[in-house]
């Protein structure tokens, strides 16, 4: 279980997460929703320690971080291996082929052999429907294809959780579907996923749990059904606005 | 003076200048530039490190070597240090000075190239659990190399021409040879045009190498391939 307790994150005096506490379970898809600027992406990046909290505790299984203490870079890198991250702008490595992107982590970080990593990468690319594109470079792929490679890259590390930071916001509507389908398939297979999205229709389809973040604090955290049938005025307003 | 004797004089000068180029100017440039690249790489990485001391030390180095004339640096290395009992031969003094001087400029090209790679690339590599050194080596360097290529070749071309200053510390490179021929033949105009032509040839070859390397490396990195 991933557990955040009393987490505070600030940038330049501005507090983005305020005494944030939540637990995230394995084998579930949790979708984080909320208005722009509510701290959704910051929360996701904080989970992966791409941002450092000013205070609070972060627990994953046996590992524990208590802030504001500074931890050695090695410990942080090791912790990050528990998470695969998918970014809004894909962030594939442009100098590496699709296959090269997927095997980079396993070879460089997990010290797998090139043969073993390549074999597994091919299975993953197949899984995201891009077996034919293994040798293509990112600039030869559409946005949707790039994002699917990015998902394969994250999966190749066999992370505990996959974190998605608005994975389809940079995509044309007609390319969105292919990426959403991959995430949905992974949800069905009971992967542990945390997804930040604006797309509430999609959230409804895949979420076991919804976390509604407002102004850096948890407004709702519970079953997805409960969120979409909530009588709470704030939630009703939000879902109405976002799903119209 | 008739045309035939001019042609004859040029022909006689070509050999010694060519040999000086082959034996001194070109090796001096290559060795100095390799040294410069090593220094520049270390400097650039140190200047973006978290260590305030490292940043200060290397920023000071760049400040001094960019802020003082190359010829003064050569004189300090060759004549100045000798007065302290540290006697360097002309070749060594030239390599060290050119390496440090060029390294200061090249480090800025490399530093700028590294900083131009988006934070998203760092984040993506970090999220794979890569260490800072590994990220620099595997993800940033290959992309930064392409971006740094044009300014680094600028630096290399200016270094080729800069080696002519080594004549002033008695190193017998192309320019010093041409000076000697000019003194002997009383034909400074012709001789200096001939040696200028040699520098131009070397630069032209370097421009060719640059455009070849750019074509090879721009294939997938960076959005712009219209050149």
TrEMBL record, chain A:
PROSITE patterns: ABC_TRANSPORTER_1, ABC_TRANSPORTER_2. Residues 2-240 form the ABC transporter domain. It holds the Pfam family ABC_tran. One of its GO terms (molecular function) is ATP binding. Belongs to the ABC transporter superfamily. It comes from the Bacteria. It is found in: Cell membrane. The keyword Nucleotide-binding applies. It is a peripheral membrane protein. One of its GO terms (cellular component) is plasma membrane. Its main location: membrane. This is Amino acid ABC transporter ATP-binding protein. Keywords: Amino-acid transport, ATP-binding, Cell membrane, Membrane, Nucleotide-binding, Transport.
């Amino acid at each position: 279980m991933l557990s955040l307790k009393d987490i505070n994150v600030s940038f330049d005096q501005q507090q983005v997460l305020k005494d944030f506490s939540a637990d995230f379970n394995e084998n579930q898809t949790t979708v984080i929703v909320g208005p722009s600027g509510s701290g959704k992406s910051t929360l996701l990046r904080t989970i992966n320690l791409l941002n450092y909290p000013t205070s609070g505790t972060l627990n994953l299984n046996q590992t524990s971080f208590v802030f504001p203490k500074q931890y050695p870079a090695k410990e942080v890198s090791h912790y990050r291996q528990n998470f695969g991250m998918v970014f809004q702008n894909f962030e594939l490595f442009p100098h590496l082929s699709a296959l090269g992107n997927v095997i980079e982590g396993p070879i460089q970080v997990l010290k797998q052999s090139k043969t073993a990593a390549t074999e597994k990468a091919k299975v993953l690319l197949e899984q995201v429907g891009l077996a034919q594109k293994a040798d293509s470079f990112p600039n030869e792929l559409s946005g949707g294809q790039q994002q699917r490679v990015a998902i394969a890259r994250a999966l190749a590390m066999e992370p505990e959780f996959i974190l998605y930071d608005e994975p389809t916001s940079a995509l044309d509507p007609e390319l969105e579907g292919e990426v959403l389908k991959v995430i949905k398939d992974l949800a069905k297979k009971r992967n542990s996923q945390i997804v930040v999205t604006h797309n509430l229709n999609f959230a409804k389809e895949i979420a076991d749990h919804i976390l509604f973040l407002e102004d850096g604090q948890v407004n709702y955290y519970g079953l997805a059904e409960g969120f979409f049938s909530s009588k709470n005025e704030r939630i009703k307003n939000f879902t109405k606005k976002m799903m119209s | 003076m008739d045309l035939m004797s001019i042609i004859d004089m040029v022909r006689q000068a070509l050999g010694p200048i060519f040999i000086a180029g082959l034996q001194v100017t070109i090796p001096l440039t290559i060795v100095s530039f390799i040294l410069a690249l090593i220094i520049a790489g270390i400097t650039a990485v140190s200047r973006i490190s978290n260590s305030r001391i490292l940043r200060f030390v290397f920023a000071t180095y760049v400040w001094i070597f960019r802020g003082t004339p190359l010829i003064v640096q050569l004189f300090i290395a060759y004549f100045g240090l000798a007065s302290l009992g540290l006697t360097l031969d002309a070749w060594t003094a030239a390599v060290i000075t050119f390496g440090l001087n060029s390294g200061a400029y090249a480090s800025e090209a490399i530093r700028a190239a590294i900083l131009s790679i988006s934070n998203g690339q760092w984040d993506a590599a970090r999220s794979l659990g890569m260490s800072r050194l590994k990220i620099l080596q595997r993800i940033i360097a290959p992309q930064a190399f392409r971006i740094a290529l044009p300014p680094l070749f600028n630096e290399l071309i200016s270094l080729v021409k800069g080696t002519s200053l080594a004549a002033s510390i008695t190193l017998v490179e192309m320019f010093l040879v041409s000076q000697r021929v000019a003194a002997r033949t009383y034909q400074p105009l012709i001789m200096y045009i001939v040696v200028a032509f040699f520098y131009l040839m070397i630069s032209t070859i370097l421009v060719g190498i640059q455009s070849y390397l750019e074509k090879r490396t721009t294939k997938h990195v960076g959005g712009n391939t219209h050149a």
